[in-house]
Known about the structure:
The chain contains four helices and five strands, in the order E-H-H-H-H-E-E-E-E. With 141 residues, it is α+β, with helices and mostly antiparallel strands. Strands 1-3-4-5-2 form a five-stranded antiparallel sheet, covered by helices on one side. The two termini are 16 Å apart.
Amino acid sequence: MKGKTIEEIKIGDSAVFQKTISETDVYLYAGITGDINPAHINEEHSKNSMFKGRIVHGMLTAGLISAVLGVQLPGPGTIYLGQELKFTAPVRFNDTIEARVEVIEINPEKNRIKLETTCTNQNKEIVLKGVATVMPPKKEC
Length: 141
């Protein structure tokens, strides 16, 4: 299985991945990363916060972008070089998040692609936006 090469990609190409974030997802992420911030895992503490309850780790949400890039566009073999992110709204447990990427710049000389990255919830609210820089897989000779 191999992703698209730079020769196969054009400006405007896009792909999406959708997932409902469960409580289990949040606890697994906390365990893997060590990020046990009470904002994510302690309902009693979080209900008095500005969010009035637990929220999903921002970087867990951002990880859904990685799924799109590594599996769909450009796909397997892609190297993730950078990501600018802005978190614009909290993600709550059981929100369904759609991660979307769209090609906005292609640099064939350096084998680099820039993609606009957006995550929206089930209410179509943007919860995260940014720009990713990736290196798609090379054409096999």
